[in-house]
Amino acid sequence: MKIIILITFLLYLTNLTISQKAGKLSPEVHPPITWQQCDANGQCNTVQGEIVIDANWRWVHSDQGTNCYTGNTWNPTICPDDISCAQNCSLEGANYESVYGVTTNQDSVRLDFITQSQGKNIGSRLFLMANETNYQLFQLLNQEFSFDVDVSKLDCGLNGALYLVSMDQDGGMTRFPSNSAGAKYGTGYCDAQCPRDLKFISGQANSEGWVPSPNNPNTGAGKHGSCCAEMDLWEANNMANALTPHPCDTSSQSMCEEDDCGGSASSNRYASICDPDGCDFNPYRMGNKTFFGPGLDVDTKSVFTVVTQFVTDDGTETGTLSAIKRLYVQNGQVISQSVSTIPGVTGNEITTDFCTTQKDVFGDPDSFSKHGGLAGMGKALKQGMVLVLSLWDDYFSDMLWLDSSFPVTASIDKPGVSRGPCSTTSGVPTTVESTDADAYVIYSNIKVGPINSTFKNKSTK
Protein backbone atom coordinates (compact mmCIF):
# COMPACT_ATOMS: atom_id res chain seq x y z
CA MET A 1 0.00 0.00 0.00
CA LYS A 2 2.84 2.44 0.91
CA ILE A 3 4.49 1.77 -2.45
CA ILE A 4 1.24 2.51 -4.33
CA ILE A 5 0.73 5.74 -2.37
CA LEU A 6 4.33 6.81 -3.05
CA ILE A 7 4.01 6.12 -6.78
CA THR A 8 0.73 8.04 -6.91
CA PHE A 9 2.32 10.97 -5.08
CA LEU A 10 5.32 11.00 -7.41
CA LEU A 11 3.03 10.95 -10.44
CA TYR A 12 1.14 13.86 -8.89
CA LEU A 13 4.35 15.83 -8.46
CA THR A 14 5.37 14.99 -12.02
CA ASN A 15 2.09 16.31 -13.35
CA LEU A 16 2.53 19.49 -11.33
CA THR A 17 6.03 20.20 -12.59
CA ILE A 18 5.01 19.94 -16.22
CA SER A 19 2.07 22.33 -15.86
CA GLN A 20 2.14 25.88 -17.26
CA LYS A 21 5.32 25.01 -19.11
CA ALA A 22 7.88 27.11 -20.92
CA GLY A 23 7.87 26.64 -24.69
CA LYS A 24 10.84 25.30 -26.67
CA LEU A 25 10.20 26.72 -30.14
CA SER A 26 11.49 30.27 -29.65
CA PRO A 27 14.13 31.36 -27.15
CA GLU A 28 13.04 33.87 -24.53
CA VAL A 29 15.55 36.74 -24.64
CA HIS A 30 14.66 39.73 -22.48
CA PRO A 31 15.46 43.18 -23.87
CA PRO A 32 17.99 44.93 -21.56
CA ILE A 33 17.28 48.21 -19.81
CA THR A 34 19.08 50.21 -17.14
CA TRP A 35 17.72 52.18 -14.20
CA GLN A 36 19.37 54.08 -11.35
CA GLN A 37 19.51 53.74 -7.57
CA CYS A 38 20.24 57.08 -5.88
CA ASP A 39 21.50 57.99 -2.40
CA ALA A 40 20.48 60.91 -0.18
CA ASN A 41 23.12 63.14 -1.80
CA GLY A 42 21.71 62.57 -5.26
CA GLN A 43 24.54 60.30 -6.37
CA CYS A 44 23.07 57.57 -8.55
CA ASN A 45 24.42 54.17 -9.55
CA THR A 46 23.33 52.41 -12.72
CA VAL A 47 21.56 49.06 -12.32
CA GLN A 48 21.41 46.56 -15.17
CA GLY A 49 17.92 45.22 -15.64
CA GLU A 50 15.77 43.63 -18.29
CA ILE A 51 12.10 43.55 -19.25
CA VAL A 52 9.69 40.71 -19.93
CA ILE A 53 6.28 40.71 -21.57
CA ASP A 54 3.25 39.46 -19.68
CA ALA A 55 2.31 35.81 -20.26
CA ASN A 56 -1.14 36.93 -21.43
CA TRP A 57 0.37 38.25 -24.67
CA ARG A 58 2.26 35.05 -25.52
CA TRP A 59 1.53 32.28 -27.97
CA VAL A 60 0.09 29.39 -25.95
CA HIS A 61 0.32 25.99 -27.64
CA SER A 62 0.43 22.24 -27.14
CA ASP A 63 3.56 20.13 -27.49
CA GLN A 64 2.48 19.47 -31.09
CA GLY A 65 2.30 23.21 -31.82
CA THR A 66 -1.52 23.45 -31.84
CA ASN A 67 -2.97 26.65 -30.46
CA CYS A 68 -4.41 26.27 -26.97
CA TYR A 69 -6.02 29.70 -27.39
CA THR A 70 -7.14 31.31 -30.65
CA GLY A 71 -8.76 34.71 -30.94
CA ASN A 72 -10.77 34.82 -27.72
CA THR A 73 -11.55 31.14 -27.20
CA TRP A 74 -9.79 28.09 -25.75
CA ASN A 75 -9.33 24.82 -27.62
CA PRO A 76 -11.81 22.50 -25.82
CA THR A 77 -9.84 19.35 -26.66
CA ILE A 78 -6.52 20.58 -25.27
CA CYS A 79 -8.18 22.54 -22.47
CA PRO A 80 -11.13 20.53 -21.11
CA ASP A 81 -10.45 21.90 -17.61
CA ASP A 82 -8.05 24.32 -15.90
CA ILE A 83 -5.57 21.73 -14.60
CA SER A 84 -5.34 19.71 -17.84
CA CYS A 85 -5.04 22.89 -19.84
CA ALA A 86 -2.03 24.03 -17.81
CA GLN A 87 -0.46 20.59 -18.20
CA ASN A 88 -1.05 20.50 -21.96
CA CYS A 89 -0.04 24.06 -22.86
CA SER A 90 3.25 25.96 -23.07
CA LEU A 91 4.05 29.67 -23.05
CA GLU A 92 6.32 30.48 -25.97
CA GLY A 93 9.28 32.84 -26.12
CA ALA A 94 8.55 36.34 -27.43
CA ASN A 95 9.76 38.26 -30.46
CA TYR A 96 9.65 41.62 -28.74
CA GLU A 97 10.16 44.08 -31.58
CA SER A 98 8.63 42.35 -34.58
CA VAL A 99 5.52 40.92 -32.88
CA TYR A 100 4.89 43.20 -29.89
CA GLY A 101 6.44 46.53 -30.92
CA VAL A 102 8.69 46.73 -27.85
CA THR A 103 12.22 48.12 -28.13
CA THR A 104 14.79 49.24 -25.57
CA ASN A 105 17.76 51.59 -25.83
CA GLN A 106 19.95 51.84 -22.74
CA ASP A 107 17.63 53.41 -20.09
CA SER A 108 14.53 53.72 -22.27
CA VAL A 109 11.77 51.46 -23.55
CA ARG A 110 9.31 52.25 -26.33
CA LEU A 111 5.91 50.57 -26.51
CA ASP A 112 4.13 50.78 -29.87
CA PHE A 113 0.34 50.69 -29.85
CA ILE A 114 -0.34 48.61 -32.98
CA THR A 115 2.15 46.14 -34.43
CA GLN A 116 1.43 44.12 -37.55
CA SER A 117 3.34 40.85 -38.05
CA GLN A 118 1.69 37.44 -38.40
CA GLY A 119 -1.32 39.15 -36.87
CA LYS A 120 -2.34 42.39 -35.21
CA ASN A 121 -0.92 43.06 -31.76
CA ILE A 122 -2.53 45.74 -29.60
CA GLY A 123 -0.41 47.33 -26.87
CA SER A 124 1.64 45.46 -24.32
CA ARG A 125 2.26 44.92 -20.62
CA LEU A 126 5.86 44.56 -19.44
CA PHE A 127 7.59 43.91 -16.13
CA LEU A 128 11.02 45.08 -14.96
CA MET A 129 13.28 42.20 -13.96
CA ALA A 130 16.24 42.01 -11.60
CA ASN A 131 17.65 39.06 -13.54
CA GLU A 132 16.47 36.42 -15.99
CA THR A 133 14.20 34.64 -13.52
CA ASN A 134 13.08 37.25 -10.96
CA TYR A 135 11.15 40.49 -11.07
CA GLN A 136 12.72 43.58 -9.54
CA LEU A 137 11.06 44.45 -6.23
CA PHE A 138 10.79 48.10 -5.12
CA GLN A 139 10.27 49.02 -1.46
CA LEU A 140 9.32 52.67 -1.56
CA LEU A 141 8.33 53.90 1.91
CA ASN A 142 10.14 57.21 2.56
CA GLN A 143 11.45 56.96 -1.02
CA GLU A 144 10.65 58.51 -4.36
CA PHE A 145 10.27 57.00 -7.83
CA SER A 146 10.93 59.11 -10.91
CA PHE A 147 10.96 58.54 -14.65
CA ASP A 148 10.83 60.47 -17.92
CA VAL A 149 7.90 59.97 -20.25
CA ASP A 150 6.90 60.95 -23.78
CA VAL A 151 3.09 60.93 -24.15
CA SER A 152 3.02 63.24 -27.16
CA LYS A 153 1.64 60.50 -29.43
CA LEU A 154 -1.01 59.25 -26.99
CA ASP A 155 -4.35 60.85 -27.80
CA CYS A 156 -7.81 60.45 -26.25
CA GLY A 157 -8.70 56.84 -25.46
CA LEU A 158 -5.13 55.60 -24.92
CA ASN A 159 -3.41 54.94 -21.61
CA GLY A 160 0.32 54.75 -21.14
CA ALA A 161 0.44 53.32 -17.61
CA LEU A 162 3.44 52.83 -15.33
CA TYR A 163 2.52 51.26 -12.00
CA LEU A 164 3.41 48.85 -9.21
CA VAL A 165 1.68 45.61 -8.21
CA SER A 166 2.27 43.04 -5.47
CA MET A 167 3.23 40.13 -7.71
CA ASP A 168 5.40 37.25 -6.51
CA GLN A 169 9.03 38.00 -7.31
CA ASP A 170 9.47 34.65 -9.10
CA GLY A 171 6.14 34.86 -10.93
CA GLY A 172 4.53 32.37 -8.54
CA MET A 173 6.84 29.37 -9.05
CA THR A 174 7.54 28.83 -5.36
CA ARG A 175 3.95 29.12 -4.18
CA PHE A 176 2.54 27.21 -7.15
CA PRO A 177 4.83 24.35 -8.23
CA SER A 178 2.52 23.77 -11.21
CA ASN A 179 3.99 26.98 -12.66
CA SER A 180 7.33 26.00 -14.19
CA ALA A 181 7.50 29.00 -16.57
CA GLY A 182 7.76 31.66 -13.88
CA ALA A 183 8.82 35.27 -14.11
CA LYS A 184 11.07 34.51 -17.08
CA TYR A 185 7.88 34.11 -19.12
CA GLY A 186 5.93 36.91 -17.46
CA THR A 187 3.62 34.86 -15.24
CA GLY A 188 1.84 35.85 -12.04
CA TYR A 189 0.12 39.11 -12.96
CA CYS A 190 -2.42 40.59 -10.56
CA ASP A 191 -3.89 43.99 -9.77
CA ALA A 192 -6.63 45.64 -7.73
CA GLN A 193 -9.24 45.06 -10.44
CA CYS A 194 -8.81 41.28 -9.87
CA PRO A 195 -8.75 40.78 -13.67
CA ARG A 196 -10.56 37.74 -15.01
CA ASP A 197 -9.16 38.01 -18.55
CA LEU A 198 -5.88 36.31 -17.57
CA LYS A 199 -5.23 32.98 -19.27
CA PHE A 200 -3.29 31.53 -16.32
CA ILE A 201 -3.67 32.27 -12.60
CA SER A 202 -1.89 30.66 -9.64
CA GLY A 203 -0.33 27.90 -11.74
CA GLN A 204 -3.49 26.79 -13.52
CA ALA A 205 -5.39 27.84 -16.62
CA ASN A 206 -8.50 30.01 -16.53
CA SER A 207 -10.30 28.15 -19.30
CA GLU A 208 -13.26 26.72 -17.36
CA GLY A 209 -16.33 28.86 -17.79
CA TRP A 210 -14.46 31.19 -20.13
CA VAL A 211 -16.81 33.64 -21.87
CA PRO A 212 -15.41 35.34 -25.00
CA SER A 213 -15.71 39.11 -24.97
CA PRO A 214 -18.67 40.37 -27.04
CA ASN A 215 -16.70 43.35 -28.38
CA ASN A 216 -13.02 42.36 -28.15
CA PRO A 217 -11.75 39.68 -30.56
CA ASN A 218 -8.76 38.87 -28.33
CA THR A 219 -10.06 38.57 -24.79
CA GLY A 220 -12.74 37.13 -22.55
CA ALA A 221 -13.37 36.37 -18.89
CA GLY A 222 -12.88 33.17 -16.96
CA LYS A 223 -14.24 32.02 -13.61
CA HIS A 224 -11.16 33.20 -11.77
CA GLY A 225 -9.42 36.51 -11.24
CA SER A 226 -6.06 37.55 -9.79
CA CYS A 227 -6.06 40.13 -6.99
CA CYS A 228 -3.32 42.19 -5.38
CA ALA A 229 -2.50 45.72 -4.26
CA GLU A 230 -1.81 48.24 -7.02
CA MET A 231 -0.06 51.62 -6.93
CA ASP A 232 -0.77 53.53 -10.14
CA LEU A 233 2.16 55.91 -10.38
CA TRP A 234 1.06 57.07 -13.80
CA GLU A 235 -1.98 56.55 -16.02
CA ALA A 236 -1.98 59.09 -18.83
CA ASN A 237 -2.26 60.27 -22.39
CA ASN A 238 -1.52 63.77 -23.66
CA MET A 239 -4.83 65.11 -22.33
CA ALA A 240 -5.10 63.82 -18.75
CA ASN A 241 -3.30 61.84 -16.06
CA ALA A 242 -4.07 60.19 -12.73
CA LEU A 243 -2.06 59.10 -9.69
CA THR A 244 -3.96 56.41 -7.75
CA PRO A 245 -3.26 54.03 -4.84
CA HIS A 246 -5.42 50.86 -4.69
CA PRO A 247 -5.02 48.93 -1.41
CA CYS A 248 -6.23 45.37 -0.77
CA ASP A 249 -7.06 43.47 2.40
CA THR A 250 -4.14 41.19 1.58
CA SER A 251 -1.34 42.77 -0.42
CA SER A 252 0.08 39.64 -2.07
CA GLN A 253 -1.43 37.89 -5.09
CA SER A 254 -4.52 35.77 -4.47
CA MET A 255 -7.03 34.05 -6.74
CA CYS A 256 -10.72 34.95 -6.58
CA GLU A 257 -13.76 33.27 -8.11
CA GLU A 258 -16.55 34.67 -10.27
CA ASP A 259 -18.53 37.56 -8.77
CA ASP A 260 -16.31 37.60 -5.67
CA CYS A 261 -13.66 39.12 -7.94
CA GLY A 262 -15.58 42.37 -8.29
CA GLY A 263 -14.45 44.71 -11.04
CA SER A 264 -16.00 45.20 -14.46
CA ALA A 265 -16.51 41.47 -15.20
CA SER A 266 -18.63 40.86 -12.11
CA SER A 267 -22.13 41.82 -11.04
CA ASN A 268 -20.82 43.78 -8.03
CA ARG A 269 -17.83 46.00 -8.77
CA TYR A 270 -16.95 46.25 -5.06
CA ALA A 271 -17.21 42.58 -4.07
CA SER A 272 -13.49 41.74 -3.95
CA ILE A 273 -10.77 42.08 -1.33
CA CYS A 274 -9.36 45.08 -3.24
CA ASP A 275 -10.32 48.69 -3.89
CA PRO A 276 -11.07 48.94 -7.63
CA ASP A 277 -11.55 52.74 -7.62
CA GLY A 278 -8.61 53.88 -5.55
CA CYS A 279 -8.09 57.45 -4.36
CA ASP A 280 -7.06 59.30 -7.49
CA PHE A 281 -5.47 62.67 -8.04
CA ASN A 282 -6.24 63.77 -11.59
CA PRO A 283 -5.44 67.51 -11.95
CA TYR A 284 -8.34 68.06 -14.37
CA ARG A 285 -10.79 66.19 -12.16
CA MET A 286 -9.58 68.23 -9.18
CA GLY A 287 -10.59 71.41 -10.99
CA ASN A 288 -7.47 72.68 -12.79
CA LYS A 289 -8.19 72.42 -16.51
CA THR A 290 -5.12 74.37 -17.67
CA PHE A 291 -2.38 72.45 -15.86
CA PHE A 292 -1.67 69.32 -17.94
CA GLY A 293 -1.86 69.02 -21.71
CA PRO A 294 -0.42 70.34 -24.97
CA GLY A 295 1.11 73.79 -24.36
CA LEU A 296 0.00 73.92 -20.69
CA ASP A 297 2.00 74.10 -17.43
CA VAL A 298 3.10 70.51 -17.95
CA ASP A 299 3.43 70.51 -21.73
CA THR A 300 2.64 67.07 -23.10
CA LYS A 301 4.10 67.95 -26.50
CA SER A 302 7.58 67.28 -25.08
CA VAL A 303 9.27 64.94 -22.60
CA PHE A 304 9.02 65.60 -18.87
CA THR A 305 9.97 63.90 -15.60
CA VAL A 306 7.36 62.46 -13.22
CA VAL A 307 8.31 62.24 -9.53
CA THR A 308 6.22 60.38 -6.96
CA GLN A 309 7.16 60.65 -3.27
CA PHE A 310 5.94 58.28 -0.54
CA VAL A 311 6.06 60.20 2.74
CA THR A 312 5.83 58.38 6.09
CA ASP A 313 4.58 59.73 9.40
CA ASP A 314 8.00 59.49 11.07
CA GLY A 315 10.26 60.09 8.07
CA THR A 316 11.62 56.54 8.07
CA GLU A 317 11.30 53.49 5.83
CA THR A 318 9.49 51.64 8.64
CA GLY A 319 6.88 54.31 9.29
CA THR A 320 3.26 54.49 8.16
CA LEU A 321 2.50 55.96 4.74
CA SER A 322 0.96 59.39 5.40
CA ALA A 323 1.08 61.19 2.03
CA ILE A 324 1.78 60.63 -1.65
CA LYS A 325 3.20 63.70 -3.39
CA ARG A 326 3.65 64.46 -7.08
CA LEU A 327 6.16 66.72 -8.81
CA TYR A 328 6.99 67.24 -12.48
CA VAL A 329 10.27 68.45 -13.95
CA GLN A 330 10.33 70.02 -17.40
CA ASN A 331 12.84 72.35 -19.07
CA GLY A 332 14.83 72.61 -15.84
CA GLN A 333 11.85 73.65 -13.73
CA VAL A 334 10.28 71.70 -10.89
CA ILE A 335 6.51 71.98 -11.16
CA SER A 336 4.39 71.17 -8.11
CA GLN A 337 1.19 69.21 -8.52
CA SER A 338 -1.78 71.50 -9.14
CA VAL A 339 -3.89 72.42 -6.12
CA SER A 340 -7.50 71.24 -5.94
CA THR A 341 -10.08 73.91 -6.69
CA ILE A 342 -13.02 71.64 -5.83
CA PRO A 343 -15.02 73.26 -3.00
CA GLY A 344 -14.49 71.29 0.19
CA VAL A 345 -11.48 69.32 -1.11
CA THR A 346 -8.16 71.02 -0.45
CA GLY A 347 -4.49 70.49 -1.21
CA ASN A 348 -2.39 68.77 -3.85
CA GLU A 349 -1.33 65.60 -2.02
CA ILE A 350 -3.00 62.24 -1.47
CA THR A 351 -3.62 61.96 2.28
CA THR A 352 -6.25 60.22 4.38
CA ASP A 353 -8.17 63.46 4.83
CA PHE A 354 -7.98 64.24 1.11
CA CYS A 355 -9.32 60.80 0.18
CA THR A 356 -12.15 60.78 2.72
CA THR A 357 -13.27 64.28 1.74
CA GLN A 358 -12.98 63.62 -1.99
CA LYS A 359 -15.16 60.50 -1.78
CA ASP A 360 -17.76 62.44 0.16
CA VAL A 361 -17.82 65.48 -2.15
CA PHE A 362 -17.81 63.38 -5.34
CA GLY A 363 -20.42 60.98 -3.97
CA ASP A 364 -18.21 57.95 -4.70
CA PRO A 365 -18.26 54.73 -2.63
CA ASP A 366 -15.39 54.82 -0.14
CA SER A 367 -13.90 51.43 -0.91
CA PHE A 368 -10.47 53.01 -0.35
CA SER A 369 -10.95 53.28 3.42
CA LYS A 370 -12.75 49.93 3.53
CA HIS A 371 -9.65 48.13 2.25
CA GLY A 372 -7.05 49.82 4.43
CA GLY A 373 -6.65 53.25 2.89
CA LEU A 374 -3.24 54.88 2.74
CA ALA A 375 -1.82 52.71 5.53
CA GLY A 376 -2.87 49.60 3.61
CA MET A 377 -1.13 50.88 0.50
CA GLY A 378 1.94 51.50 2.63
CA LYS A 379 2.04 47.86 3.74
CA ALA A 380 2.27 46.76 0.12
CA LEU A 381 4.99 49.33 -0.61
CA LYS A 382 6.97 48.11 2.39
CA GLN A 383 6.61 44.47 1.33
CA GLY A 384 7.95 45.21 -2.17
CA MET A 385 6.17 45.68 -5.49
CA VAL A 386 6.88 44.89 -9.14
CA LEU A 387 7.06 47.62 -11.79
CA VAL A 388 4.65 47.36 -14.72
CA LEU A 389 4.98 49.37 -17.95
CA SER A 390 2.05 49.24 -20.33
CA LEU A 391 0.08 50.78 -23.18
CA TRP A 392 -3.58 49.92 -23.73
CA ASP A 393 -7.01 50.96 -24.95
CA ASP A 394 -10.25 50.34 -23.10
CA TYR A 395 -12.97 48.03 -24.43
CA PHE A 396 -15.08 48.46 -21.31
CA SER A 397 -15.46 52.25 -20.97
CA ASP A 398 -13.39 53.82 -23.80
CA MET A 399 -10.98 55.34 -21.22
CA LEU A 400 -13.57 58.02 -20.45
CA TRP A 401 -12.88 57.55 -16.72
CA LEU A 402 -9.40 59.00 -17.37
CA ASP A 403 -9.76 61.73 -19.99
CA SER A 404 -13.43 62.69 -20.48
CA SER A 405 -16.68 63.01 -18.50
CA PHE A 406 -17.65 59.85 -16.62
CA PRO A 407 -20.16 58.43 -16.00
CA VAL A 408 -21.55 59.75 -19.27
CA THR A 409 -25.06 59.82 -17.81
CA ALA A 410 -24.06 62.24 -15.03
CA SER A 411 -24.15 66.02 -15.29
CA ILE A 412 -20.77 67.59 -16.03
CA ASP A 413 -21.61 70.11 -13.30
CA LYS A 414 -21.45 67.36 -10.67
CA PRO A 415 -18.06 67.42 -8.89
CA GLY A 416 -15.75 64.64 -10.04
CA VAL A 417 -17.49 63.89 -13.34
CA SER A 418 -15.19 65.96 -15.58
CA ARG A 419 -11.88 64.11 -15.75
CA GLY A 420 -10.40 65.46 -19.00
CA PRO A 421 -11.20 67.47 -22.15
CA CYS A 422 -11.86 64.51 -24.46
CA SER A 423 -15.30 63.99 -25.99
CA THR A 424 -17.60 61.37 -24.48
CA THR A 425 -17.71 59.78 -27.94
CA SER A 426 -13.92 59.41 -28.07
CA GLY A 427 -11.81 56.40 -27.18
CA VAL A 428 -13.79 53.71 -29.01
CA PRO A 429 -11.14 50.98 -29.46
CA THR A 430 -12.04 50.07 -33.06
CA THR A 431 -11.67 53.73 -34.00
CA VAL A 432 -8.55 54.39 -31.95
CA GLU A 433 -6.82 51.28 -33.30
CA SER A 434 -7.32 52.66 -36.81
CA THR A 435 -6.72 56.39 -36.40
CA ASP A 436 -3.93 56.10 -33.81
CA ALA A 437 -2.24 52.93 -35.02
CA ASP A 438 1.16 54.66 -35.00
CA ALA A 439 0.84 55.83 -31.39
CA TYR A 440 3.54 54.95 -28.87
CA VAL A 441 4.84 55.82 -25.41
CA ILE A 442 8.47 56.03 -24.27
CA TYR A 443 9.50 55.52 -20.63
CA SER A 444 13.08 56.32 -19.69
CA ASN A 445 15.51 57.48 -16.96
CA ILE A 446 13.93 55.47 -14.13
CA LYS A 447 15.40 56.46 -10.75
CA VAL A 448 14.68 55.39 -7.18
CA GLY A 449 16.05 56.90 -4.00
CA PRO A 450 15.39 58.93 -0.84
CA ILE A 451 12.97 61.83 -1.16
CA ASN A 452 14.39 64.71 -3.26
CA SER A 453 17.32 62.63 -4.51
CA THR A 454 16.33 61.74 -8.09
CA PHE A 455 15.96 65.18 -9.68
CA LYS A 456 17.85 68.48 -9.71
CA ASN A 457 15.90 71.32 -8.16
CA LYS A 458 17.06 74.11 -10.50
CA SER A 459 14.00 76.27 -9.96
CA THR A 460 10.47 75.83 -8.74
CA LYS A 461 7.30 76.74 -10.59
From TrEMBL:
- Sorted UniProt keywords: Carbohydrate metabolism, Cellulose degradation, Glycosidase, Hydrolase, Polysaccharide degradation, Signal
Annotated catalysed reactions? Hydrolysis of (1->4)-beta-D-glucosidic linkages in cellulose and cellotetraose, releasing cellobiose from the non-reducing ends of the chains
What's a single GO BP term from this record? Answer: cellulose catabolic process
Q: Which residues form the signal peptide?
A: 1-19
The EC designation for this entry is 3.2.1.91
Taxonomy, top ranks, is: Eukaryota, Amoebozoa, Evosea, Eumycetozoa, Dictyostelia
This protein is called cellulose 1,4-beta-cellobiosidase (non-reducing end)
Is the Thylakoid keyword given for this protein? no
Is the keyword Transferase assigned to this protein?
A: no
| Molecular function GO labels | cellulose 1,4-beta-cellobiosidase activity
Gene3D superfamilies, A to Z: Glycoside hydrolase, family 7, domain
**Which family does the record claim for this protein?**
Belongs to the glycosyl hydrolase 7 (cellulase C) family.
